[in-house]
Amino acid sequence: MNISIIGCGASGMTAAISAIRNGADPECITIYEASDRPGRKILATGNGRCNLGNEFLDRSCFYVSDDRGRTFVDGILSSFSTDDLKEFFDSLGIITVSKNGYLYPRSLQALSVLDALVKTCEDAGVRIEYSSPVTGIKKTGDRILLNFGDCSEETDRVIISSGMGSGGFAIKGIDALGIFDGLGLELRKAYPALCGLKVSDDIRSVAGVRAHGKVTLMSEKTDLGEDEGEIQFTKETVSGIPVFQVSRQASAYLADGRRVYAVLDLMPEVSADDVSEMIRKRIRMYPEREAAFLLNGVLNNKLSSYVLKRSGIKNELKTGQIDYDKTVRLSDNIKALKFDITGTESAEKAQTMEGGISLNEVRDDLELKKHKGIYVAGELLDIDGKCGGYNLYLAWATGLIAGRSAAL
């Protein structure tokens, strides 16, 4: 029995390993990868350290669209625990360590994980075909036909595990969801998730700055979510984990044409009144010092200059020359620095994508209900997780389930 796997990423290689461990002949397994090398997204996770998973696993860590999604998540969590994750990587020769509940390879190198997966597949005899994008799938009786554009190939079982963002399909300019065309399935449009947010303001002066703070995402008067941690600034985006955690909500609202804005609290550990008192006290104590001294030791120098400018306070002013209204504005900008969001980073830069094939279309074993012998795993499923290793957890878990199901 031939098993074809589309996508040589986390879920694809895991599916191959799982199929072998459940009795499939490795020499009858082929992985088709659209790009010229495997596991691009693996190398990018955890800032290159590969955040394999998280010791805290709960339904609340995942986003789904309906009741079927919630029961699906419960099934995944009950069948693949954190201990199972550690055991799986131990079987590949990867020692895992926990850093505040976040699981990493002990080497803290994503390359270690990628090498272990690739070598396990290759040593077993799995064939990996690079630069081989599958552009379509068709059922012909009990056989499955894979389309490669100018040629096709028959197979017995297919596991579709290609990513929708920065994987090979994106590099080749192919719509990953387009592979399902003609199969009559319910698909939910995909949008970038866990990504930076583009802002309307000119923030080039603070590019590269990292600062602890809290991000609150809003649309009109609706609170879309908030998170606290290290905020990062680029030439055109606000980024970092707390921004990633609310970015999927921004994608959905922006797609609907609704206004979205982010409010940054640059001193979340103190109250607005305390910030106001700090500013007034510094003015009283040092009336002859330059305006920049008001935030000396409080914020990063570049960020301090930006906030002062947003508050209408010129550098050449002495602190004693700053009028009351500007001190109020400065305090407000420290506690509630507002940015209109104009868009998200591209799918290629996003850590994952929301949307995909409806979970109503797949059985618990990840086989399509309408098409026997075709399985779906990984990012293509309409389920995504929060930042913290949850999306890679989904890749490993669904890959193991799909591989086992295809082999039996």
SSE blueprint and pairings:
Elements: E1 3-6, H1 10-21, E2 29-32, H2 40-44, E3 53-54, E4 62-63, H3 67-79, H4 82-91, E5 96-99, E6 102-105, H5 110-124, E7 127-129, E8 136-140, E9 143-147, E10 152-155, E11 157-160, H6 168-172, E12 187-193, E13 197-199, E14 210-219, E15 222-233, E16 237-239, H7 241-255, E17 260-265, H8 272-285, H9 301-310, H10 324-335, E18 337-344, E19 352-357, E20 374-376, E21 384-385, H11 390-407
Parallel strand pairs: 1-2, 1-11, 2-7, 11-20
Antiparallel strand pairs: 3-6, 4-21, 5-6, 8-9, 9-10, 12-19, 13-16, 13-18, 14-15, 14-17, 15-16, 17-18
CA gyration radius, whole angstroms: 25 Å
Question: What is the 3D form?
Answer: elongated
> Which strand-content bin applies to the residues?
15-25%
| Major β-sheet annotation | 6 strands, antiparallel, barrel
For the largest sheet, list the strands in their spatial order: 13-16-15-14-17-18
Task: Enumerate the spans where pLDDT stays under 50 for 5 or more consecutive residues.
Answer: none
Helices, by number, come to 11
Structure in words:
With 408 residues, the chain is α+β, with helices and mostly antiparallel strands. The strands form 6 sheets. Strands 13-16-15-14-17-18 form a 6-stranded antiparallel beta barrel. The protein starts with a strand and ends with a helix.
